[in-house]
Amino acid sequence: MAEINHFEYGWITPALSYALSVLGSILGLVCASRIRTAPSAGQRAWWGVLAAWALGGTAIWTMHFMAMLGFAVTGSRIRYDVPVTVASALIAVVAVGIGLAIVGTGRLSVVRVLVGGLFTGAGVAAMHYTGMAAMRMDGRLGYDQVRVALSVLIAVVAATVALWLAMTVRRGLAIFASALVMGVAVNGMHFTGMSALSVHLHERQGDVTGAEVGTLLIPIVLLVIFGVVGLIYALLAAPTDDDLAAAAYLGTRQVRPAAAEPAAVDVPDPVGLRARSTLARPGAQFPSRRDHPPR
């Protein structure tokens, strides 16, 4: 059995993996909080996609790959199968997206959260072990079944809590605290699953095919940067809840026109009574006797 080192570069890789999981969790929780307040089905779907990308792509899969950078096996090189690695990323995003769709539509209930958490947790575990199956080395991989079951249980519990927080947390401080907890859960699941791994080297060393870590690192880092910038831009460009409330108020408010003054009615005056009446001319004085011409 080969010697395994999970922290070849010291604390750098676990610290970066935890930071990525917290960053992705913050963005995912903020995007998920917009799902239930979105005014249309299209906007709810849009925020669901962004939340799935942030949670599944950044908080879970990118964290997994960053932690794998510190994984080393004594006596063997490690390469990665690119199609299987890409498939593991898609599994994470799709699993989180389906979980958000389960809890984000209809009335929020305990049953919905449990079903969504079970499905999402199973998807996260599948992502993790698919990513590990993408490793190519001069050896055979083995797993401790008890620790594998424990990692799956942690994934299901973490996914359930994450979905519940995604649908209930709204304020900034609560989102940040929730992201810290989710980062611990995601990293705990990853390293629990990694501790279940054992490697048995082949007697004859052969050529290891696949992409090196450095080859995959550059596109993944660029993907994370553009993805995070895109998520932040989408959040900043979207109207806030106050903006939506103000727009709804202005849309339903009815502006009443000012009351118009009644138009004057021109009453016929055939005998000239209006000209003789002093009531029709405010401020007019009664004529005196000397104003009348002598008869």
From TrEMBL:
Record bears the keyword Transmembrane helix: yes
Pfam families in UniProt: MHYT (PF03707)
Record InterPro entries: MHYT_dom (IPR005330)
Record's GO cellular component terms: membrane
Transmembrane segments: 15-33, 45-72, 84-103, 110-128, 148-166, 173-193, 213-236
UniProt entry keywords in alphabetical sequence: Membrane, Transmembrane, Transmembrane helix
Keyword hit for Transmembrane: yes
Domain of life: Bacteria
MHYT domain: residues covered: 9-200
Protein name per its UniProtKB record: Signal protein
Organism from which the protein derives: Micromonospora radicis
